[in-house]
Design brief:
It comes from Streptomyces yaanensis. There is one protein chain. The protein is mainly α. Helix content is 63%, strand content 2%. The chain contains 16 helices and two strands. It has a two-stranded antiparallel ribbon with strand order 1-2. Helix 7 packs antiparallel against helix 8 and helix 7 runs antiparallel to helix 11. The radius of gyration is 22 Å and the shape is globular. The structure holds 3-hydroxybutanoyl-coenzyme A.
């Protein structure tokens, strides 16, 4: 049977002129056998383009997602909450790093991807175009937004593209911590004073529907799902994952003592799932077009942070150049000093 490993051997043998159909057959066989496709393996152009699109969108979501929460670091109600929130926001920067690195293995550069984000040619998740109005929003983001992210991203640990799948393993572990801190924060508010309980309920009311939209459009309007599932980039459809998320959240909301803002939410014995009300897809598409409550603020802040971080990137690049004569490894600075970390240093402040 043709495998990715066999394909690697073929390449090493110098059979680069083998016809595209043969390469494609090897690629298809590797995907069918659940092997990982690695950066130096042959892959269809459209597979590469789809991965760059999805991984870049994912990376952009991680770094834009730092803004709404960083907004609350200075106002966290205790030192413990502040330390937890700082760690979480820092994790998101790390997730951006892993994902930009994964995208770079496909032959694009981080500068190019950031330029596409800043000029509106690549997207980031719709969810981060909503404001964080109260402290309870930090809890609702952890519980619902990170919860939705985990539901969507755990299957990505089995994505057919190796670097993306491996990056997702660590990201999902950290997202689990984020989800739990959000749940614990909301539980404390829900069991607090009537005002605190009301604040938690208000946050859940505002974040519930946008969280359901994170999974993307319904399956019959999802342009990429069928092909991405055939390539095993995605393992489940948007609607399947959305349903899974609803089924997880209903009992958790009961434990929290909070209600989900959907009068049509009820258990369906036949489907063995919760039914839920219609999603406002007009709102979703408007947010994607740039007309959400915070689109302009988010991208303006991102561009400003990038510009203000230029000196850090220049300094790090100069430092890396100075030490590129082999002394880097010796003095313990091998790796990311002039590259990965420098790119995001100084870029993630909130307006
Ligand atoms: N926000 C913005 N755009 C979205 C979207 C969303 N929630 N859902 C779908 N879209 C866009 C798609 O990118 C596509 O547009 P394009 O052709 O211009 O790229 C269009 O809507 C049609 O959607 P499809 O269903 O055809 O797109 P996909 O097959 O790519 O599925 C997806 C969308 C489920 C979001 C998929 O891309 C995916 O699983 N991505 C990886 C996960 C990810 O990006 N998560 C970001 C969440 S936030 C996060 O992780 C941060 C953490 O800290 C919470």
């Amino acid at each position: 049977m043709a495998t990715a490993a066999a394909h690697r051997t073929a390449r090493a043998d110098g059979t680069a002129d083998a016809d595209a159909a043969a390469y494609e057959a090897v690629f298809d066989a590797a995907v069918a056998a659940d092997e990982r496709i690695e950066p130096r393996d042959w892959m269809p152009d459209a597979y590469r383009a789809t991965l760059i699109r999805q991984i870049a969108q994912h990376a952009h979501s991680e770094i834009i997602g730092m803004q709404p929460e960083a907004n609350w670091i200075t106002r966290a109600p205790s030192l413990r909450r502040k330390a937890i929130l700082m760690a979480k926001v820092q994790d998101e920067a790390g997730h951006g790093l892993y994902l930009y690195s994964a995208a770079e293995t496909l032959g694009t550069s981080r500068d190019e991807l950031l330029d596409k984000l800043h000029t509106g040619r690549q997207k980031y998740s719709s969810i981060f175009n909503y404001p964080t109005l109260t402290w309870a929003d930090v809890g609702a983001i952890g519980w619902l937004v990170d919860g939705a992210a985990i539901t969507n991203q755990v299957p990505l640990c089995r994505c057919s593209y190796g670097p993306y799948a491996r990056a997702m393993v660590r990201i999902c572990k950290e997202e689990s911590f984020h989800q739990r801190q959000g749940y614990e924060l909301l539980l404390a508010l829900s069991r607090g004073t009537p005002e605190q309980h009301a604040m938690a309920q208000d946050a859940v009311d505002r974040w519930w529907w946008p969280s359901l939209m994170m999974f993307g459009p319904p399956d019959d309007e999802s342009a990429h799902s069928a092909q991405s599932m055939a390539w095993k980039i995605k393992r489940h459809s948007n609607d399947e994952l959305r349903q899974r998320f609803v089924d997880i959240c209903v009992p958790q909301a009961e434990s929290l003592g909070l209600t989900l803002p959907d009068p049509q939410l009820r258990w369906n014995e036949e489907r063995v799932h919760y039914d839920f009300g219609p999603i406002d897809w007009t709102e979703f598409w408007e947010v994607l077009k740039g007309n959400g409550p915070c689109n302009e603020q988010r991208i303006t802040q991102r561009r400003r942070a990038h510009d203000e971080g230029a000196w850090v990137r220049e300094a790090a690049a100069a430092y890396a150049a100075k030490h590129s004569d082999g002394t880097r490894a010796a003095d313990g600075h091998a790796g990311t000093v002039g590259g990965a970390s420098a790119h995001q240093a100084g870029e993630n402040g909130e307006a």
